Amino acid sequence: MDSLIMSARDIEFLLYEWLDVTRFTERDRYREHSRETFDQVLELSRDLAEKYFAPHNRDGDLHEPTFDGEKVHILPAVKQALDAFGGAGLVGAAMDERVGGMQLPHTVFTACMAWFYAANVATTSYPMLTMGNANLLASHATPEQIELFVRPMVEGRWFGTMALSEPQAGSSLADITTKAVPQDDGTYRVFGRKMWISGADHEMSDNIVHLVLARIPGAPLGTRGISLFIVPKYLPGADGSVGERNDIVLAGINHKMGWRGTVNTAPVFGDGAFTPGGAPGAVGYLVGEPHRGLSYMFHMMNEARLGVGLAATALGYTGYLKSLDYARSRPQGRPVTAKGQDTPQVPIVRHPDVRRMLLAQKSYVEGALALQLYCGTLIDEQRSAASESEYARAGLLLRILTPIAKSWPSQWCLAANDLAIQVHGGAGYTRDYDVEQHYRDNRLNPIHEGTHGIQSLDLLGRAVVADDGAAPALLMETIGATVGAARATADAELGDFADALARATGRIATTTATLWKGGDPNLALANSAAYLEAFGHVVLAWIWLSQAVAAHGHTGSFYEGKRAAARYFYNWELPRTTAQFDLLDSLDRTTLDLDDTSL
Q1: Which of 166, 449, 533, 573 is catalytic?
Q2: Run of H or E including 208
Q3: Within 10 Å of residue 585's Cβ, how many Cβ atoms?
Q4: In what helix (H) or strand (E) does residue 159 lie, and over which residues does it extend?
Q5: Lowest CB count within 10 Å: 204, 267, 274, 288, which one?
Q6: How many CB atoms lie within 10 A of CB 252?
Q7: Separation between Cα atoms, residue 113 and residue 312, nearest integer Å
Q8: Tens digit of pLDDT for each residue in 218-254?
Q9: Is 12 among the catalytic positions?
């Protein structure tokens, strides 16, 4: 039976026919796996998502977490779902065996997580944050800290968060003021306020492990003076048992337009409500070296950026499937050539403009899912690389694709949700159908883990210029290989697509050079958001050409759908970039020179 959560057939195509993920089983890290184990965990993920996550998605939206001044209260169904997720071993599915994981390829696990995000993004946030927390500590913590904090998270007994933002600082982490005072026993006492911290208090786990950015007294100003600390809700005993309550309380919880089932909090560290060891201050444990906290946190932040992109993709995808199902079953209107009211009504999917909206959604969500899975292969390439050069190559591609994998789905899969509402007509604006909630949930993703503006500064200001442009050069080389493969098919349409993509990648190169030729970063970066959008569309055109090449020579409605979506993207979407590149090449100063009193 087809699902309205995700497409198992599309996942199968992307994993096995396009990316050939079984090739990773030839590498030492993944040698214990096979297509059989991949399919088993994919089926398990679908079953858990349908049985435990999807049923309370609407309830979690209507009955969001509450705070009575002491405890956060969340729907019981959320804990039941998380217990099932943790009990299945999925928290550590892609993690190392040394910390209790099963070393599943990240690509396959990304496909597994798509089911959960699509079924219930709010409930899935709790394990997503926990996995990011555990992965960071597994890479940068001491063996003792890993044993004490990571293993309980991998086992699903403890949850994790990341506590970065502060009320006065927002995304400007250089301005955080939370302080960590060293103690004689090697621990620290943490004092400060954080804001917008998801999952930072609840009663669904034995403990919550916060990763907190703070400054040690005397630290350098700016980001170079930030350190990272483990600050648990309850202090653990040497044997891992849960002990005394740490000095962490909530000033309150935030109520968002969507994603309501994830408690979002304003935690206070060290206000004296609790006095562990008889003294105020939240007990914290330094991770790694002092003043290197932001570099460590980027491990989790980059993972979270990909997680946000996958969440946006999944929300757009389920909205597409539900609007497609509605369009096929909703009779309304008649063909424009029909004469007389005695002509039977037709399902709205028969109307060309409805098909346009559905095809647009398909091109956005299937393209975005393919991009997410491709990024997963780069992570797997890094984790199983046989040489430094292989590791470096995957890292360069991942570096330049991460801001796109975060921001492009956050913009265009949200647009898919908008179209899903439109396909439903007036019914789409009511709570009788899921699509309005999917839109509200997805509307948060353009700001989660950094706005479009922040991602565009990262892309244009860092990724494309670092190491004399090594990352974009490698990406253009990789795209060029797909262009060559498309031309090799001798299919005229694929050849046309290849030519269009070659021209678009050429514009990336010339526009990047134009933006930076004057050496003025203010001018170069003033219109970086347009650069990110145009660059992202070119990347998605590449993804679609690559899928079309994989579908070439196959027959059936599924493959025809792939070709139609690629055709739509090349005819309707890629041409958008011409005007954007022209604008960027003009070095327009409108926003740069604007006096804010004129707004």
Answers
A1: 449
A2: strand 207-214
A3: 14
A4: strand 158-163
A5: 274
A6: 11
A7: 12
A8: 999 988 999 999 999 999 998 889 999 999 999 999 9
A9: no
